[in-house]
Write a sequence for this structure.
């Protein structure tokens, strides 16, 4: 298999392809999707390579069908994902909500482009950040990761699968047009270096099995269809057996479970990358492709002896509340750089309990923000 | 009768609190019992069945049955079922849907699942209305009949679900009624056995919602109407067009052979792995 | 500890833009060039692209950034090298060139030249005449870039073409590359003859 990386060596890889290769390394065996720029290369790569590993690829009639098939396959035991962009992500929202309430592990990749609506199919944006948190209706708790390099595409899709399997929840991976389409030189980890987590299976006999068991971990072991457990799955709010309920206590228990399984494991889920933060008095807060420009801008500033560092959350949801509360107390200034009109900046403001001044820099004209723009803004607000 | 009840009882989820959500006199229970007897008669194990549904009165059926059951979002049952079937082709996947769920919000999935010819048995309970939400007109409400959102009579043309399935590529299409239960059981059995996408449309009476709005009388009267207007496809061949004018056809309406999707995809895997 | 960054740590950047219209294979040659520089010559490289919503006919470009140190910002700002295979691309991007940047055009397609030094070669015409197909004009141009600059070695280009060329077209593409390599020399010869 030509595409499989056998030895540790440098290769030139596209972000979308790295994402697909990472998914295969994580044990993906079902993909359903619908063509949409700029995510299509993921589907094309998997159409060709997934069957080589015995997995299955299907092009569905739309994105609603794609996420539906992904959830169905996961319930039947598959590791399943879909990849899309803004318009498709919008169409998927109702059933992403289904995956939250029915606690179905699956991964949704959103290679962001400009919006709203059809927007800018071939241009970069980070304007789906809040949609990844609040896209579907109801109370739920999202796990969303954001990538800023081709290597991170590979690493974080694996992490997305692992978190999804571990916490029985959909995980969203935010990419963007720049990262999805760019090629860069990477060295990928060897298969033996990759840790893959698979969902907990029940150890009890079928008659004791509760598909949505409430236990101290808030994570229920998960049987698949056809394994003798014969459970019920529904999008209606349900009791631990999966049967629809209207009882106040059971409703509250269910919604608490959805929250607690995320909140009680926040330290395992949240990851932030830092650069030059040891002596920093100010920081640039950036994620996704904007973080690349920020890294360069910080180097320009450091050259001029400005003590600035980088805060790059690779987990954007749940938001790194505690970390940012600490940082807002420690730093004088946090400059939030985003390729939208300001989305995560509101979270930075929310968690600002200290002395830091929060400033923003936003670009939303379809182009990647430049290091010079960031440096200029940094000098302006210092 | 006692024997029939015993069979049904063996497949019910005893932990689930009955009674069901269905109104008294509803036709869905008849279809549910018939489906269970069909599965029992085919000697399919409970673990082998995946019963998938969308949203609506008929879609509440899976929760009561002791199979692998999946109650999905409105209209999407066939898309979820596609994922289940592809991930575990050894399961017998049966989709329960209604005329609104399957043909309005889920119409796109309906035609494409049929076109793909994946081995899914679809049982579409056609009660001509959105009953769960109180009787709005559906894509199967007949012309000039009433719904709460068609208070002056429906001015849209209804779908014929069987023609739609046939035109979309289904390999097996049949129609039964809640009155002709013996025939319905046979049709469901044939549909489950058939490899590929099969549809059984069940003309299902809804006395409380649709029946009241359209003054069609009690459940018994609505079933009498079925008896009077259903004509088996075999008898229809001997009848004049004049006599068939206000009748509808029942029985196996379409039965062809075409390669099944999951089996074809196994060939894709073999090709990708260089085995063929 | 204070982090101080030296100037040389990140500013040895060389920026290339390959531009034209959709269907001329610019994203493909961009990938080949990036592969050659990054994998076979061992420098750091990023390749990004920009194109219209339509796959063919619209404007298309592939940008390559080369550096000895890590590349953060993957897009171009001021170009060191611009290849323009259409008039539209030449008009649109020649101002993005540095003053001492190199502009290479397809003289069989670009006729209105900007007021600066231009290196023109009839890539498309040569492809049609010598290799009987216009589709390898992009690879010929790639060879010419290799001959005119020190940004990529010939050996690396050959390896990258071998790896990235669609199956069955390797030989054609290698011929095209060789042809492209020879163009600047021929041109110099012609010029010296003209002087005499």
């Amino acid at each position: 298999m030509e595409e499989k990386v056998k030895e540790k060596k440098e290769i030139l890889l596209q972000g979308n392809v790295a994402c697909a290769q990472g998914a295969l390394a994580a044990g993906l065996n079902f993909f359903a999707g619908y063509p949409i720029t700029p995510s299509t290369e993921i589907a094309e790569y998997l159409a060709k390579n997934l069957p080589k590993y015995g997995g299955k690829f299907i092009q569905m009639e739309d994105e609603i069908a794609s996420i539906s098939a992904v959830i169905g396959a996961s319930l039947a035991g598959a590791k399943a994902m879909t990849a899309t962009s803004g318009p498709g992500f919008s169409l998927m929202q109702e059933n992403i909500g289904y995956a939250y309430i029915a606690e179905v592990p699956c991964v949704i990749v959103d290679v962001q482009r400009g919006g709203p609506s059809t927007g800018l199919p071939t241009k970069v944006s980070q304007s789906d950040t809040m949609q990844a948190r609040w896209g579907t209706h109801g109370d739920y708790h999202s796990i969303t990761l954001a990538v800023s390099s081709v290597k991170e595409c590979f690493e974080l899709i694996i992490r997305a699968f692992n978190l999804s399997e571990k916490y029985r929840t959909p995980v969203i991976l935010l990419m963007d047009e720049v990262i999805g389409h760019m090629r860069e030189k990477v060295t990928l980890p060897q298969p033996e270096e990759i840790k893959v987590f698979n969902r907990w299976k029940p150890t009890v006999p079928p008659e004791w099995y509760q598909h949505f068991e409430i236990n101290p971990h808030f994570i229920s072991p998960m049987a698949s269809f056809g394994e003798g457990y014969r459970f019920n799955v529904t999008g209606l709010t349900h009791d631990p057996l999966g049967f629809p309920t209207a009882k106040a206590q059971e409703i509250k228990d269910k919604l608490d479970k959805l929250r607690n399984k995320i909140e009680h494991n926040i330290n395992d889920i949240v990851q932030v990358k830092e650069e030059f933060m040891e002596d920093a008095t100010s920081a640039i807060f950036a994620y996704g492709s904007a973080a690349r420009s920020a890294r360069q801008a910080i180097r320009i500033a450091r050259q001029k002896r400005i003590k600035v560092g980088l805060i790059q959350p690779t987990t954007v949801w749940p938001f790194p509340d505690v970390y940012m509360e600490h940082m807002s107390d420690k730093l004088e200034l946090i400059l939030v750089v985003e390729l939208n009109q300001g989305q995560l900046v509101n979270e930075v403001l929310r968690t600002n309990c200290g002395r830091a001044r929060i400033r923003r820099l936003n670009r939303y004209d379809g182009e990647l923000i430049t290091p010079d723009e960031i440096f200029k803004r940094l000098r302006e607000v210092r | 009768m006692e024997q029939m009840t015993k069979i049904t009882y063996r497949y019910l989820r005893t932990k689930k609190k009955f009674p069901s959500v269905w109104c008294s006199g509803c036709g869905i229970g008849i279809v549910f019992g018939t489906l269970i007897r069909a599965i029992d008669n085919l000697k399919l194990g409970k673990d082998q069945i995946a019963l998938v549904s969308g949203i609506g009165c008929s879609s509440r059926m899976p929760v009561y049955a002791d199979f692998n059951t999946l109650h999905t979002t409105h209209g999407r049952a066939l898309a979820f079922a596609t994922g289940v079937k592809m991930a575990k082709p050894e399961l017998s996947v049966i989709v329960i849907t209604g005329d609104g769920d399957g043909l309005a919000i889920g119409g796109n999935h309906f035609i494409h699942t049929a076109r793909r010819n994946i081995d899914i048995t679809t049982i579409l309970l056609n009660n001509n209305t959105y009953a769960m939400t109180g009787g709005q007109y559906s894509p199967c409400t007949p012309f000039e009949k009433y719904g709460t959102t068609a208070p002056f009579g429906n001015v849209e043309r209804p779908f014929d679900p069987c023609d739609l399935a046939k035109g979309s590529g289904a390999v097996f299409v049949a129609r039964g009624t809640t009155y002709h239960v013996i025939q319905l059981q046979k049709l469901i059995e044939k549909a489950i056995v058939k490899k590929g996408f099969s549809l059984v449309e069940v003309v299902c009476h809804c006395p409380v919602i649709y029946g009241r709005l359209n003054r069609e009388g009690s459940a018994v009267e609505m079933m009498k109407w079925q008896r009077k207007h259903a004509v088996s496809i075999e008898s229809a061949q001997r009848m004049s067009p004049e006599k068939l004018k206000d009748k509808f056809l029942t029985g196996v309406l379409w039965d062809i052979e075409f390669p099944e999707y999951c089996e074809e995809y196994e060939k894709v895997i073999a090709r990708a792995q260089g085995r063929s | 500890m204070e982090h101080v960054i030296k100037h040389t740590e990140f500013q040895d950047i060389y920026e290339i833009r390959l531009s034209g219209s959709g269907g001329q294979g610019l994203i493909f040659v961009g990938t080949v060039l990036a592969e050659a520089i990054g994998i076979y010559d061992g420098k750091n490289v990023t390749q990004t692209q920009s194109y219209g919503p339509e796959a063919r006919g619209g404007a298309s470009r592939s940008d390559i950034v080369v550096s000895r140190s890590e590349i953060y910002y993957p897009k171009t700002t001021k170009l060191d090298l611009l290849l323009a295979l259409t008039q539209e691309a030449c008009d649109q991007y020649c101002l993005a060139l540095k003053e001492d940047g190199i502009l290479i055009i397809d003289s069989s397609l670009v006729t209105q030249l900007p007021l600066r030094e231009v290196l023109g070669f009839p890539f498309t015409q040569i492809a049609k005449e010598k290799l009987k197909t216009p589709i390898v004009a992009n690879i010929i141009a790639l060879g010419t870039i290799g001959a005119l600059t020190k940004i990529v070695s010939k050996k690396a280009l050959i390896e990258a073409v071998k790896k990235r060329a669609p199956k069955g077209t390797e030989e054609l593409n290698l011929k095209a590359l060789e042809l492209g390599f020879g163009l600047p020399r021929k041109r110099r010869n012609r010029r010296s003859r003209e002087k005499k």
The longest helix of chain B spans residues 28-41. Strands of chain B lie at 49-53, 68-71, 92-98, 120-126, 129-130, 136-137, 172-177, 198-203, 230-232, 248-255. DSSP finds eleven helices and ten strands in chain B.
